[in-house]
Amino acid sequence: MRPYCRWFVFEILLWTLCVLLVVAGLIGSLLPVLPGVPMVFAGLFFGAWAGGFEQVGLWTLTALGLLAVASVGVDFWATATSTRRFGAGRAAVIGATLGLLVGMFFSLPGILIGPFAGAFIGHALARGTLMASTRAGVGAWVGILVSSVAKLLIGLLMVGVFVVAWLTGGATA
After folding, report:
1. Nearest to 121 by CA among 136, 108, 101
2. Contacts within 8 Å (CB) and 24+ apart, 108-114
3. DSSP codes joined into one string, 104-172
C-alpha cells in the first residue's frame, strides 16, 4: 500500500471513531451508564487528529477539555443541589448516589428507580418521615433530569465549537 493510501485508511478510521464516540457520548449524556461528555471529547479529539490538528488545534481542544471537565462537576452539583432543595440531607444524597450506581446494573428501570430508592432509603434512615423521604427521592429524580439536560447541552456546545473551528479553517484553533 502506498503511504498516502495508508493515511487515507487511517483518516477514515479516525473519522469513524469520531462520529461513533460523539453519537454515543450524546446518547450517554442522557443515560448515566455512559460517560457521555468525556466520550464526546474523545470523539472530537479523533476528529481533530484526522484533520492533522490544523483546523482544530490546541486552544480549541483545551476549551473542549475544560467543558468536558465542567460537565462532570455540573453532574454532581445538579444532583446534590436538587436533592438538598427538596429537603434531603447528606444521607439522602449518598443514598441517591449509591442507588444510581446500583441501578446502572439493571438498565433503564434501575437508572430510574435506583436514585429515588436510594434517596428515599437514605433519608428514611436518617429522619424517618415518609413524606420527607418521598420528597428526597423526587429531588434525586429532578437532579438527574437537570444534570442530563445540562450534560447534553454541554455536549452539543462542544460539537458546535468543534464545527465552528473546523469551518473557519483554524482561525479559532
Report:
1. 136
2. 108/31, 111/31, 111/32, 111/33, 112/141
3. GGGHHHHHHHHHHHHHHHHHHHHT--HHHHHHHHHHHHHHHHHHHHHHHHHHHHHHHHHHHHHHTTTTT
Rounded distance between C-alpha atoms, residue 50 and residue 64, angstroms: 17
Instruction: Tell me the CA distances in angstroms from 145 to 78, 102, 126, 132, one per residue in order.
Output: 9, 18, 25, 20
Asked if 49 and 14 touch (Cβ cutoff 8 Å), the reply is yes
Question: What CA–CA distances, in Å, run from 164 to 24, 51, 142?
Answer: 21, 14, 33
Q: How far is residue 173 from each of residues 40, 44, 99, 159, 169, measured CA to CA in Å?
A: 18, 13, 41, 14, 8
pLDDT tens-place string over residues 89-135: 888 888 888 888 888 788 778 878 888 899 899 988 987 788 888 88
Within 10 A of 31 (CB to CB), how many other CB atoms are there?
A: 14
**pLDDT tens by residue, 62-85:** 999 999 999 988 877 887 788 778
